[in-house]
Structures are given as structure tokens and as C-alpha cells.
Amino acid sequence: MLLILLSALTGVAWLFLLDLARRMAAPGGMLAMAMEGMPMPWTLRDALLMFAMWSIMMVGMMLPSATPMFLLYQHSTRRRLPADQRNLALLLFCGAYLLVWGGFSLVATLLQWLLDQRALLSTEMRSQNHWLGAAFLLGAGLYQFLPAKHACLHRCQSPLQFLLAYWRPGPSGAWRMGLAHGLYCLGCCWALMGVLFVVGLMNLLWVALIGAYVLLEKYLPGGTWLSRASGILLALWGLLLLHGS
Fold it and tell me: Which of 46, 191, 207, 245 is the most buried (most CB within 10 A)?
């Protein structure tokens, strides 16, 4: 049942993103207005829309890679928690994980607003400054080699080891464990999201590719080597962008 719910939530997130991309590209949409030179200061509605976009995008990208952890945690609650605590604990565990990515979505929205106010983003919501784009790519590439990245990736690669090391009883323990797992997942993947500022925030092909990459990096046997290879490619891409500026 949980797998069905998680799959449905991921599907709904992608349907929302597809519909939002269609609306923004339609005549009279936000992109069309910007291309016509109309002033577009952010309103509260715009800010909420962008925050919703980021939040739902993170659900669509990160939930597939988090599903094995959620399923294993549900299985563990059947053995370790009383029946009357299991559903609440599972809800708190998943909710805490999503809250972490909601916090990231808020920071990403603020960064997008800051860049937009300084006219550093194009109408396709991507960097139109080569130095800024190269900074995102080089930063993401270099982060793939840092100890913090590999420490977080190691904890994400083995759901069983995470539960054995961080298990806390009861609903309050579920909340703390969900936050811990969410923070490790964030520490593993946050820099990769900067690539979206280079290719376009609503470039759904790249959204799907990054989400698929995160899944492979966590669960392929050679995930650590994949991380380093992607770091080299991102850094080279950044250097090429600088060279062409």
C-alpha cells in the first residue's frame, strides 16, 4: 500500500510539473510576458508559485530514491513498534524527510528571486551569465569529491545500516530519524540542483535526468565512482562554459 501511495504521489508531482511548464510556455503565460518585455516584479502569488514549483519538483526528483528507505522503515515498525504507533511513526518519518526538502525549496526560491532581481536569469529561468553558470557547474562538480558528499552518500546507500545506526523508538524517534535521513539526503544531492539554474528550472528533461542520476548514485554498486565521474564531467562543463565566455 505504501509503495502505491508513494508512486501515486510521484506521479501527481510530475503531472503538476508538466501542467505548470505548459501554462508558463502558453501565450500570455509568464515566459511569454517576459519575452514581450513586460515588467515582471515578483508578487506574493509568484513567490508562492515558485516555492510550490520547487517543492513539488523535489518530490518528483527525490521520492523515488527515498522509497526503499520508507519501505524498509515501514517493515521495521512492524517488528519494533506497537500496532497503535506504526502508522503515526511512518507518517512522521516520511513527513520529516519531506520537510527537509521543503526547507531546501524555500532557500532555492529565495536564490531564484535574488538572481531574477539582478537580471541574471533568462526568460527560460536559467543563468544568462557565463560566470554564474560556470560557478554552479564547478561548484557541483567539486562537491562530488568532498568528504561531506561521500559521508552523506554512504549513509544514503544502505537504508538498513542507517536504521541500525539511527533507530529511535516511538513517534518522536521516527521524526528525528526522518530529519536525519532527509539531512543526509540533502547533503548528498543539494549541489546537483544548481545544474537546474544552468539548463533551465523548468527543463523537465534535465529534472528527470538528475532525479534518475540520484537514484543510480545511491543504489548502484559503483555509486561512489559514478559520483566522481559526474564530478569530472560537471567541472569540465563549467570550464568549457568559461572558455566560451
Answer: 207
